[in-house]
Amino acid sequence: MDKKTLKEQVISIIDNMAPELKEISLFLHTNPELGCQEYQAAQLLAKAAERHGFSLEKNISGYETAFIARKGVSGPRIAFLAEYDALPGLGHACGHNLIAAMSWGAAAAFAAVAADQAVSYFIGCPAEETTGAKVAMAEDGVFDNLTAALIVHPAATNTIGGTSYATHPLKVTFHGRPTHVASKTDKGINALDALVMFYQGLKPLRHTFTQETILAGIIINGGTAPNIVPEVAEAKLTVRALSSAYLEETVLPAVRRLADGVAVATGTTVTALHYEPLFKELINDPQLLPLFQSNLALLGETATVLGPEAAGGSTDVGNVSHRVPTLHPDIGIGCNLVAHTPDFAVAAGSDYAQARLLVGAKAMAMTAIDLLDL
Ligand SMILES: [Zn+2]
Ligand SMILES: [Zn+2]
After folding, report:
1. Edge-to-edge strand list for the sheet holding 213-221
2. Residue 204: Cβ within 10 Å count
3. How far are the Cα atoms of 157, 252, 314, 328 from residue 304, in angstroms, in the given order?
4. What is the three-class DSSP state of 170?
5. Is 346 left (phi over 0), alpha (psi -120 to 50) or beta?
6. Entry pTM
7. The sheet that has 153-155: what strands, in order across it?
8. Do 364 and 295 share a structural domain?
């Protein structure tokens, strides 16, 4: 059968799956679960895959809520990646309920038409907003030997291309010596003063980098009581650059030198530890991009094409993209929306977004068909 006919078939399968996909998306939306606690979501998605004849593997890379569903024996190995974690206090303000439903629809439709000539993988990837299960899964080789990994994220408008920031979450802790603030004989060593000095040094430090860099942070511990010179002060930073190489070879050493210099100047000691794994920058595969773009066009959609240095956020899909050709475009669910806001959470549960997820699922399945050896 030719690719045109197969594409028509996946479109009609996904249209027929619309009630199931909407139910999945809205169940996740009304039952938001944080990273590593997505038990209901993972179970719902895994059961759907089993019902459609996928084999199932659970507990992947130490994540109880990760799974790998697979259908087909040989041929190109196409993975559709699902995310399903929500944000604290905001619910599905990143629209991962839509990602789960889109990837499931695409995986099911692709398997339905191509199980005899390709392998369809539906891979459940927890905790994108926190530790990023894909980091450990990528290190464990889960994505190795795939032909392609596909995932579509909801956003304000359709975009393809671009990248994401390589990101190091860093916890910086200064240790001083406590004493009474009114002591005439012992002034102690103020860890908070040191931390504030460090924090203020971040902005001028940023100006020394020749590549785009983000140094953002919050103070999470500034002492225990105002009448005690703070013994410990801690900040959490997100340190970002457009490449993990520049981040690790230039930016992080400079941040550590700043912290060490402040420690020497103030008589404190300092530690700087990664509290979550590194997310690498996203590489959108140049062969997959035009395929997805032309399939969107077949569906009557246009998309803004982003340059290779256009980064909006960071994602653990970046780590996948360093192992296997990866595609991570955005599908529009409403102009002017910004992810991680209450408005985005409302939009992710709207009827419009449930219709838009069908477009994303179709374009993914159609792109998988382009990868068949026909
Ligand atoms: Zn997010
Ligand atoms: Zn997201």
Report:
1. 213-221, 232-241, 166-175, 269-274
2. 9
3. 8, 33, 19, 13
4. strand
5. alpha
6. 0.91
7. 153-155, 330-332, 159-163, 304-311
8. yes
96 C-alpha to ligand 1 centroid (Å): 8
Same domain for 256 and 176: yes
Q: Give the separation between CA 107 and CA 109, rounded to whole angstroms.
A: 6
pLDDT tens, the chain, 374 aa long = 899 999 999 999 999 999 999 999 999 999 999 999 999 999 999 999 999 999 999 999 999 999 999 999 999 999 999 999 999 999 999 999 999 999 999 999 999 999 999 999 999 999 999 999 999 999 999 999 999 999 999 999 999 999 999 999 999 999 999 999 999 999 999 999 999 999 999 999 999 999 999 999 999 999 999 999 999 999 999 999 999 999 999 999 999 999 999 999 999 999 999 998 999 999 999 999 999 999 999 999 999 999 988 998 899 999 999 999 999 999 999 989 999 999 999 999 999 999 999 999 999 999 999 999 87
Give the span between the Cα atoms of 35 and 57, in whole angstroms: 19
By residue range, what is the domain housing residue 339? 3-163+281-370
Beta bridge partners of 123: 68, 81
Cα of 304 vs centre of ligand 1, distance in Å, is: 20
CATH no. for residue 101? 3.40.630.10
Q: Which ligand number lies closest to the CA of residue 130?
A: 1
**271 C-alpha to center of ligand 2: Å?**
30
> Measured in angstroms, how far is the CA atom of residue 304 from the centroid of ligand 2?
19
Q: How far is the CA of 198 from the centre of ligand 1 (A)?
A: 28
Q: Which of 250, 274, 298 is the last residue of a domain?
A: 274
Listed residues: CB within 5 A of ion ligand 2: 94
Q: Do residues 158 and 175 share a domain?
A: no
Distances (CA, A) of 22 to 194, 259, 314, 326: 52, 49, 27, 26
Q: How far is the CA of 7 from the centre of ligand 2 (A)?
A: 27
Give the total number of structural domains in the chain.
Answer: 2
